[in-house]
Amino acid sequence: MAIRRLPETLINQIAAGEVVERPAAAVKELVENAIDAGARRIDVLVRDGGRTMITIVDDGGGMSAGDLALAVERHATSKLPDGDLMAVATLGFRGEALPSIGAVSRLTLTSRQPGADSAWSITVEGGLVGEVLPAAHPPGTRVEVRDLFYAVPARLKFLKAPRTEQDHIEDVLQRLAMAHPEIAFSFTAGEGGRAALRYGVGEGDALEVRLSRLAAVLGRDFGESAVPVNRSRDDMTLTGFVGLPTFNRATSRDQYLYVNGRPVRDKLLFGAVRGAYGDLMPRDRHPALVLFLELPGHEVDVNVHPAKTEVRFRDGQAVRGLMVGAIRQALAGAGAAVASSLAGGALDALAVRPAAPAYQPLPASGYRGSLGAPPPRLPRGLAETGFAWQAPLPPAGRPAEGALGAVLPEESGGGTHEPPAFPLGVARAQLHNTYIVAETVDGLVLVDQHAAHERLVYEKLKAAMLDGDQGRQVPAQGLLMPEVVELGDGGARRLLANADELARLGLALESFGVGAVLVREVPAMLGHADIGALVRDLADQLAELDHAPALRDRLEAVCASMACHGSVRAGRALSADEMNALLRQMEQVAHSGQCSHGRPTFIELKRADIERLFERR
Fold first, then answer.
1. Cα–Cα distance between 79 and 96 in angstroms, integer?
2. Where does CATH 3.30.230.10 sit in the chain?
3. Which of 60, 149, 317, 481 supports an S-S bond with 155, CB 3.0-4.6 Å?
4. What CATH homologous superfamily does 8-199 map to?
5. Torsion sign (Cα): 546, 331, 231, 264
């Protein structure tokens, strides 16, 4: 078959297939053009999910009659003044965007430059370009796209339901709105003219304006549970906000990453996020964050994907190192902070359900008061949380006995009536030999003693591991009677293959026949840990980490398992001094708001929250 040149219209339709695969892609191209034009307000209107109409109006710089004629020609752009493809400093560089959209729809451009006497308009229908004609329009540009894909009807059957297409458009606009808090956005869908999205420009400094916009898009909880990131290295700068580890999601949907202002979905960047949160979050949960990476244009190639959602870095490891370090530094600076949503969840659990019966009877085996009468029945909201009636407290000096298993600390040291101004307060009770109740100046804190101590031990192990990097080994304690642990061939082989790494952490073991190891030393800081359970868990952990790219990743995972086995267990009664010592250590250790597996270590309720529970506010 002879080679022939394709018609211009067909060329544009092929280009449209790469650039405009759905209405959201067209909206993205056109809104990016408005941003590049210096707009301070952008209004988007769609009907039928963008299939029948897309209208975008901005107050940007506008175009002259000559610019309009060139704008609908292929490979015509104002965004490469020096002709350097690697120096793309704008969002919307794609010379084929407007002609591609015009090739598959009925496109009308109307624009007026500030100070110009009149506006100008041009139409493109199915690739056929009309004349530039005078029009009436305020300064700025109006783009109308009608009957998208009417010229290639086969593509229409690949579009989803209008609501689905509208959701994709909303996602595009939200990503652009977060990157440009200085621009007001509105999005209206359907015939009724109801605004689906509306983002104004906040007040305050640049950081406050950005956080206000992010909270408007991602929700108030994000604004209350995020910490700022601002770090530079060489010619790269990373800014934005990252959510606390306790503010997490079931998917990575709420991770928004930008490179030079352009929203991207890049595997290297997502991998850096996972590495930064590695020991702070459960494996099946994902952080929420918005990060902006700025670097010289020649250090990144933004043209490796038709939609420019993927990029390629000249020095990927430097980018990854900057991101991991910046996120960890920001989270460490947050100290023992936890997500505000945890307190909201606790309040929801405690709140009385108005629709439910006011009281629920206790089982017949429940406690009775001192006069033998049945105890008062608790509101359902409390009963559902596992609380039950407790008999009156015994005389001072004796531990309370009952369903709560509370042990009240003696009035000594930090146990005075007025709580000192410690961030985590002073211990007042222990519930179920598992949870510490501490009174703060303006509320209370409920601490999971095992999860909290696990984080403290983990951080000590990590610090000792860093000392090991400098030639100092983690202090170990020899066992009076070495312990033999049966594991099976695979588990024993994995442990022995990593024996040198484990020895650096204070765990000395050696082969003891087929499928078994002999443990001679354990890290001194673990105390009386269950050695058999610890070694078996480490063997399982190493089976999952065979693919770990770095020694440090394996060591940190091993530290997490050791910390879990060496921590104060749930069910252990603690004295007042022990509880307060744990609280003071938590205040001094980074990331103490969650254990090494990512679970929260404490929940704080403000006095105002408690008063609302009792309708005092």
1. 13
2. 206-334
3. 149
4. Histidine kinase-like ATPase, C-terminal domain (3.30.565.10)
5. positive
- pLDDT for residue 397 is more than 50: no
What mean pLDDT comes out for the span 524-535? Answer: 77
Cβ-count burial of 228 within 10 angstroms (0-12 exposed, 13-18 middle, 19+ buried)?
middle
Q: Which two tokens stand for residue 315?
A: 């020095």
Q: Which of 82-96, 119-133, 428-442 has the lowest mean pLDDT?
A: 82-96
Lowest-pLDDT range of 35-39, 118-122, 515-519, 593-597: 593-597
CB 417 within 8 Å of CB 397: no
- Determine which of 54-58, 310-314, 376-380, 566-570 has the lowest per-residue pLDDT on average: 376-380
> What pLDDT is recorded for position 285?
84
Alpha-carbon separation of residue 163 from 49, 153, 160, 171, 173 (angstroms)? 6, 20, 8, 12, 15
Report the distance separating Cα 563 and Cα 525, nearest Å: 9
Strands (E), 224-265: 226-233, 236-243, 248-249, 255-259, 262-264
pTM of the full structure:
0.68
Residues of each domain in the chain carrying CATH 3.30.565.10: 8-199
Tokens of 36: 């590049």
The pLDDT value given to residue 247: 86
Task: Quote the CA–CA distance of 607 and 245 in Å, as a whole number.
Answer: 24
Question: Which of the residue ranges 4-8, 152-156, 520-524 would you say has the lowest mean pLDDT?
Answer: 4-8
DSSP 420: P
Q: Which distant-in-sequence residues (6+ apart) come within 8 Å of 88 by Cβ?
A: 79, 80, 297, 302, 303
pLDDT at 609: 85
% of the chain exceeding 70 in pLDDT: 74
A 10 A CB-CB count for 555 gives: 22
- Give the number of other Cβ atoms within 10 Å of residue 413's Cβ: 13
The helix (run of H) or strand (run of E) holding residue 607 is helix 607-613
Distance CA 589, CA 194 (A): 49
366-374 contacts, C-beta under 8 A, 24 or more apart: 366/403, 367/391, 367/402, 367/403
Structural contact between residues 130 and 124, judged by C-beta atoms closer than 8 angstroms: yes
Are the CB atoms for 182 and 168 separated by under 8 Å? no
Q: Tell me: the pLDDT tens digits for 359-386?
A: 444 444 443 333 344 444 434 433 333 3
User: What is the third-level CATH fold of 406-617?
Assistant: Ribosomal Protein S8; Chain: A, domain 1 (3.30.1370)
Which residues of the chain are in CATH 3.30.1370.100 domains?
406-617
